[in-house]
Amino acid sequence: MKSKTQSVFFFAANKSEGSASMVNLLGGKGANLSEMCNLGIPVPPGFTISTDVSTYYYKHKNQYPKDLEAEVLKNLQRVEDEMGKTFGDPKDPLLFSVRSGARVSMPGMMDTVLNLGLNEKIVEGLAELTNNPRFAWDSYRRFVQMYGDVVLGLKPINKNDVDPFEEIIDKRKHNRHIELDTELDVEDLKFLVKEFKRVIKARTDNDFPEDPMVQLWGAIGAVFGSWMNQRAKKYRDINGISHEWGTAVNVQAMVYGNMGNDSATGVAFTRNPSTGENRFFGEYLVNAQGEDVVAGVRTPQPINRNGKKKLDDYSLESLMQKQYKQLKNIRKILEEHYRDMQDIEFTIERENVWMLQTRRGKRTVAAALRIAVEMHEEGMLTKEEALLRVDPEQLDYLLHPTFDPNATLNVIATGLPASPGAATGRVVFNADEAEEKAANGKDVILVRIETSPEDIGGMNAAKGILTSRGGMTSHAAVVARGMGKCCVAGCEEIFVVYSARQFVIGDKSINEGDWISLNGSTGEVILGKAPTIEPEVSGNFNKLLEWADAIKRLEIRTNADTPEDAKKAIEFGAKGIGLCRTEHMFFQEDRLTAMREMIMADNPLWRRSALAKLLPMQTEDFIGLFEAMDGYPVTIRTLDPPLHEFLPSRLELMVKLLDLKLNLKGINDLSEMDNVLKEIRINEDLLSKAESLNEFNPMLGKRGCRLGIMYPELTEMQAKAIFEAACRCKHNGIAVRPEIMVPLITSKEELVHQKEIIDRVARDTMDKHGIELDYMVGTMIELPRAALMAGDIAQVADFFSFGTNDLTQTTLGLSRDDAGKFLPFYIEKGIYKNEPFQKLDQDGVGRLVKIAVNEGREAKENIKLGICGEHGGEPSSIEFFHKIGLEYVSCSPYRVPIARLAAAQAVLKERAENQKKVNPKKDALIKV
Amino acid sequence: MKSKTQSVFFFAANKSEGSASMVNLLGGKGANLSEMCNLGIPVPPGFTISTDVSTYYYKHKNQYPKDLEAEVLKNLQRVEDEMGKTFGDPKDPLLFSVRSGARVSMPGMMDTVLNLGLNEKIVEGLAELTNNPRFAWDSYRRFVQMYGDVVLGLKPINKNDVDPFEEIIDKRKHNRHIELDTELDVEDLKFLVKEFKRVIKARTDNDFPEDPMVQLWGAIGAVFGSWMNQRAKKYRDINGISHEWGTAVNVQAMVYGNMGNDSATGVAFTRNPSTGENRFFGEYLVNAQGEDVVAGVRTPQPINRNGKKKLDDYSLESLMQKQYKQLKNIRKILEEHYRDMQDIEFTIERENVWMLQTRRGKRTVAAALRIAVEMHEEGMLTKEEALLRVDPEQLDYLLHPTFDPNATLNVIATGLPASPGAATGRVVFNADEAEEKAANGKDVILVRIETSPEDIGGMNAAKGILTSRGGMTSHAAVVARGMGKCCVAGCEEIFVVYSARQFVIGDKSINEGDWISLNGSTGEVILGKAPTIEPEVSGNFNKLLEWADAIKRLEIRTNADTPEDAKKAIEFGAKGIGLCRTEHMFFQEDRLTAMREMIMADNPLWRRSALAKLLPMQTEDFIGLFEAMDGYPVTIRTLDPPLHEFLPSRLELMVKLLDLKLNLKGINDLSEMDNVLKEIRINEDLLSKAESLNEFNPMLGKRGCRLGIMYPELTEMQAKAIFEAACRCKHNGIAVRPEIMVPLITSKEELVHQKEIIDRVARDTMDKHGIELDYMVGTMIELPRAALMAGDIAQVADFFSFGTNDLTQTTLGLSRDDAGKFLPFYIEKGIYKNEPFQKLDQDGVGRLVKIAVNEGREAKENIKLGICGEHGGEPSSIEFFHKIGLEYVSCSPYRVPIARLAAAQAVLKERAENQKKVNPKKDALIKV
User: Fold this and answer.
1) Lowest CB count within 10 Å: A402, A803, B131, B526, which one?
2) pLDDT tens per residue, range B757-787
3) Strand, helix or coil at B581?
């Protein structure tokens, strides 16, 4: 046990004072170095100065605790004893690396100093000892440079400014007519060291410290200081890491992989990080230092025969059999100990294997999936643990084609990654043309300023969709995700000029017919045809999701408007439709005509006659859905969007009218003239209707149940179609469970009004067919008032389905179609932590949902509760919905697998939390 | 005390079983008849069958309680004893009136039967007794007709159908070549009775009942039945009267004012109902029945000399001095007893005065005000009681000119009564023209489809504003109310055609320059010049409001953007500005130019340079406001509306560009060509900016603090102007209390961001001037999330001001600019009880306000809380704001008096409620 005031923790094989559980105190690197020592793995000895010192340091104006110096000296001695070398001894000098190591990895953010302990005298000793003056002087040159940059602060803050040391090196190389650093000889290196020291003296007014102990304290101070440098602070802000945590400092004996052909250095993963295959995987270089593996001067070699890409590759497995075997053994120890795939660094110094690092290995989602499943099958993990090892959000990547990672791409702009996938095609600017060209077998990308429901045919026909406006839940984004279609939305960098049939980015213009590619997972817009790889769903995918199903409590439904969508969702494991948007059914040519007739009608009689034309079509739509869902519940929402969405836009009509009128002059034929005049009249009528339906804020306008209340015949027709379809299906032996959902309710009275119509039509239709149906009538809770009045509304609702998209829009006063203009800025500035249309705003919107859940249940115990907003497919939101006790989430078909896994993880996380509550002490012990 | 089963309550002078406090049981009429008897006032004796019987009757399928018959008979006997006449005795017959009487007056909704107790034999006795066969037969004719209509159901349900009795009368008159009913002689009347009975027999298959007792039970049943007739039910639905209450039936001895020149009948008010003057006021007719006063055949005469309009009017005061004195005495008794102005009916039968009715008199607001104040001064009412006697909402009428009530108006359409007042002027369709014509001394009415901030100059110049779109809180309505300008908004009946410079209503078209008049209190649009009366604010007005100020707890502030508005509001008693909308300051020509420059700027530098031009102007604006408010707090909101509001509309720009381009052809001069090309380029730039700023839902778009966060230089400029102005004012000895308010906050982080700028600028400016200022920084709570996060936000806010307009829009998902399309329908159908932009939705929006108040105070005890939405001037909402503990309400200047009175009433109502809680039994006693 550590004493209360212990600030420095020693580590060496089997002699460590720390362990992996002490990550908060020792940082990730330090804790894992200790842990490896505890496991008997060879690690160059050293010591870790704890993060508490860092905290103390900042709280006391860069002062150290008073006992620190003594502790450091004591531990330095221990390292000397372990290594049999002495710090500052020119004959057999002990050199150190000094590295930062925070609780969480912050790659490249903080500073490191290597080869510490050299000076003019010791470098000569080292040259003699190693019989390698160039090695010694190069080490010294690197040390002075690193120390000058990091500790003495000569590294320019602005990336674009030139490092003074690099400037000196460049000048020397230029004078000597050489190109590579490796071409510098001992004389060059000595010259450089001299020059470095001169510039340091000039800039800092101090000589470069020759005393190794002064060097050491300087480096320790610099590492602590680097915790608060600008880029580290920014990195923490972005990644939500507390500034309070502080960093540890690891002072470790240097070992060298470049001491000859019996030395080497390498990095490896305990399993393949791309595929997850259970095979040791890595690269190494003989007679090299860590930096050389990265520098790309020599090509690293595979560590085992299996990794060989070319016949003349030579593997560590063949070349250093004993060391390879030793590493394989370490790999086994580490995996069994950490029960996860590890990312390791090693150095072989004169045949001795030294481990320098181990940490959790980063991996692709395919690898994560395979590793989790196989580790369970190997007995290393329980099913529950395996389930927690895969990020649900990432499953998305497995379901869509991806670009070949080896291809070089010409990225010309980046928008929002609205719907994942990779798409390539020729640019078109118009939905009709997209359909036409796709029908002719051409791959097209539909490029629009924004999309509207009329574009659906074209969106479906296109390989991908690119819009210059709108957010992650804009029309384009939502529809594309529903279709599983690649989409980059709100790409504000591009400027679409419909009239010129081109779009412009800076000084580039891309014309209709040009090839572009879209990466829906990153938001990248790529010029030309980027090569893609098709996705492959492995057996592990289904295996893991079946485990998830056995654990999750939430039911997963899908948002689907067509039998095709519904079937796709069932394939992915959906157990019902949580949202069928009936309006999408009205956009096909023949239906749109009847719909417009309905809208143009001036009285209920005409409206009814137009609706009568839609009735048989809607009935067929629902039959298709019921058949596809075969007994699973189908939630059908009555008409929701404002009616003007079914008319051409005012602008469109005005332009058309202008065209028609300008044409009049050139017409000589009387009957042709009559035709044009008639067309003018029709368009003028449409324009006048569009004018009268035009709204300032359509989102808050005459839509949702407001339509069905003003035009009861509309609800009547839809109810008729639903029950007619249900009766016919039931007659044919298909089980049906219709749930009719009324949108945009704000009061009980509205639902009473609509439910009366629905129940009456249901009764009539069932009587007509002599069939009884189980059906439900419920409501969307998608406006703050509905949530606040839930107790009242529940009295007449069989179910609530939370429409968190609109609830987010109204609760935050945020139009999802317009938010693209400022929301990214808000997130960048940290004013909002998350994009609220992606991750549910749990504090605001979530509180309203909780109010409605509690008060709805209080009023009606068995009320069914679900959610059908976009958040239904987002893991952190799903966890929230699980916690507050919803019964189902509904999401687009391609997100069903994500929801299944996330729902299972929600259960597991809840169990862990409950465990914590039951036994808080146990947890506290683990944490220390 | 009544026994538990007593159903019938006798009344006669000093012998009543009921009283005024038994209104629920006896109905208004019955209770007051009993009360008058208790006061010793002569009332024809009678009895009241209680509302409990009505309830019993409906619950038991139109059956009466078993003891009812005996009770009725017993009381009938008592009436006979009192009158010394006998029911059914041909020699000296007692006749009855049978009248309904519910708890609340439902004028004309239910049925009445007069002269009940006549038959073929008794009518002859009556003729003999009165020596007036025509009186007797006319009474009988009326009875048979009324009984046939009401009890036997011959009255047509559809108003447009002809009453069979009237048909018979008309035929008779036609045959006899006479025009008036009074010309019918005894023979005619006998003929009519015979014909009436014939048609009754034919239609009902029954003879007309000759037995007076059968007649009586028939009439009682009919009155009970009339409670449930269609129009009564509808009336109750509209007026929120419970169907459960039921009606009482009053059976009362008939008295006759038409028995000769010693008889008379009249109606009177104890004070003048128009002016409130404390003088007996009424009309009467000698030798006439109640109906004759209404029928208009003879002109009613004033009851006292003071009421004489013409020299030859003869007053009751002169003609029947004794009876007049008796009535004056009754008047005194009633007023002192009821402590309110009464509306009475009386009949003088052969010199005997009989009172038939007393009830609270309806009155104009001017009268209400005067009566309340004078009754206090007369010692009849406490100040508190006087305050409760005036409907605050109605004070509005006193502050605006009104149309001469005697003028005949040609009302051509009706819109929403958006801002009260009466305005007359010539139609203009364009704000600039309105200003131009007004500058030339012309009265104009600005007619627009809708108004926008650019129209403000024209709105100010116009006498009134008429819009065809938008609700009670549309731009036009809000701005007009702020200006105290008459406005009729959302008049959907009219169709505005800008291009034709006319608007159309049905087949009428009204052209530019035509005269129209607007009644902003009723929403009426009147063709031509309607004559108006200027308002006069009496001393009573200020007296009452001073009493109110002494009692109210809420502080009343005003929403004012100009020194003129601010001064007006102070005149009306405002104690500060609760909302200054700075954007209104940017619409003057020179400012708009700088504002557009700012918007067109592509980077912060250019933006700053444009803002620098606005700074001195804004500073002057604020100096004006601070000077006007002289030490009262001034709440200034930073820029709120989306920037595109400051640009011409896209449509406008497109049309202009089209025009310019079509013009190009005709130009031959090169420099002219250059000018036009330049203008084209400017407009193209504007159009492209307007396109890029265009939003789907501007209400939920880039506005409010989102502007100040994206363009901090904007907030900076405004803060500079505020503090610069404040420092200069303080330097000149003017007290200043600036409160800076950040709009559209959803999270603490946004306020932190803006407050940092404001505090910094404040510090710099105060340092520059060497002056310290007390100022506050707070936020609007106008989005649901802000209310839900109030505990968080309060940590950094000095005050909250609830923006209930926007909070209503978002909580209900209701755009106030678009709601006109369905909200009236919702209210008509009873789906919403009130227009939520007029009366606060207490259940939904109010709940959010309560959450914010509670959690805000919990986080910061001394946080200042107020409200600046339109609801701040609406009495029921003010009562709510008082109850939940806000500190102030802010409303448009013209509503300040309303708010003052409503705030005092809120205190008084609260006191009464607390009293009830302390002593519930006392209250229960009063209620029974």
Assistant:
1) B131
2) 999 999 999 999 999 999 999 999 999 999 9
3) strand
Q: How far apart (Å, rounded) are the C-alpha atoms in residues A686 and B65?
A: 65
**Any bridge partners for residue B284, and if so which?**
B266, B301
Q: Give the separation between CA A679 and CA A656, rounded to whole angstroms.
A: 10
Q: How far is CA A144 from the centre of its chain?
A: 41
Provide the 8-state DSSP code for B222: H
At CA B882, angle to CA B881 and CA B888, rounded to 5?
A: 75
Q: Is B868 a catalytic residue?
A: yes
B283: β partners: B267, B302
Strand A486-489 vs strand A416-419: parallel, antiparallel, or unpaired?
antiparallel
Which amino acid, residue B300? P
Has B37 been annotated as catalytic?
Answer: no
Q: pLDDT at residue A458 above 60?
A: yes
Chain centroid, CA B548 distance in Å? 21
Q: What is d(CA A577, CA A564) in angstroms, rounded to the nearest whole number?
A: 12
Kindly determine whether residue B822 and residue A696, on different chains, have CB atoms separated by under 8 Å: no
Q: Which residues does chain B have within 8 Å of residue A661's beta carbon, measured at their own beta carbons?
A: none
- Position A368 pLDDT exceeds 60: yes
Calculate the alpha carbon distances from B564 to A247, B627, B915 in Å.
Answer: 62, 11, 43
Residues B696, A817: C-beta atoms closer than 8 Å: yes
Query: Which residue reads 């009387």 in tokens?
Result: A670
Q: Which residues of A touch B744 (CB under 8 A)?
A: 813
pTM, 2 dp: 0.82
Query: Which of A793, A856, A34, A879 lies closest to A392, judged by CA?
Result: A879
Whether B813 sits inside 8 A of A783 (CB atoms) is yes
Nearest C-alpha in B relative to A841: B785
The number of helix segments (H) and strand segments (E) in chain A equals 35, 33
Percent of the residues in chain A that have a pLDDT greater than 70, as a whole number: 96
> What are the two backbone dihedrals, phi and then psi, of residue B349, each rounded to the nearest 5 degrees?
-110, 115
Spatial distance between the Cα atoms of B157 and A336, rounded to a whole number of angstroms: 92
CB contact under 8 A, B785 and A844: yes
Tell me the average confidence (pLDDT) per consecutive run of 10 residues in chain B, 928 residues long: 74 92 93 95 96 91 91 96 94 93 78 92 93 91 93 80 88 89 89 96 94 96 87 76 90 90 91 89 86 64 78 84 96 96 94 94 86 96 96 85 82 87 92 87 92 81 90 74 82 87 90 94 91 79 96 97 92 96 84 90 87 94 95 96 89 84 84 91 89 90 95 96 98 96 97 98 97 97 98 98 97 91 84 92 98 98 95 96 98 94 97 84 41
* Integer Cα distance of A413 and A625 in angstroms: 40
C-alpha to C-alpha distance for B593 and B589, rounded to whole angstroms: 6
Q: What ipTM score was computed for the predicted complex, to two decimals?
A: 0.82
What's the one-letter identity of residue B901?
L
Structure token digits, residue A660? 């028609």
Closest partner residue to A811 among B785, B817, B832, by Cβ? Answer: B785
Residue to test with chain A: of B818, B826, B850, B854, most A Cβ within 10 A: B818
Burial class (CB in 10 A: 0-12, 13-18, 19+), B731: exposed
Q: What is the rounded distance in angstroms from the CA atom of residue A660 to the CA atom of residue A93?
A: 92
Q: How many CB atoms lie within 10 A of CB A216?
A: 22
Instruction: Tell me the residue length of chain B.
Output: 928
Residue A39 has, within 13 A of its CA and on its CB side, a CA count of 23
d(C-alpha B907, C-alpha B913), whole Å: 10
Element (H, E) at A284: strand A281-286
Q: Are B822 and B812 in contact (CB under 8 A)?
A: no
Indicate the residue type of B474.
Answer: S
Which of helix, strand or coil describes residue A595?
Answer: helix
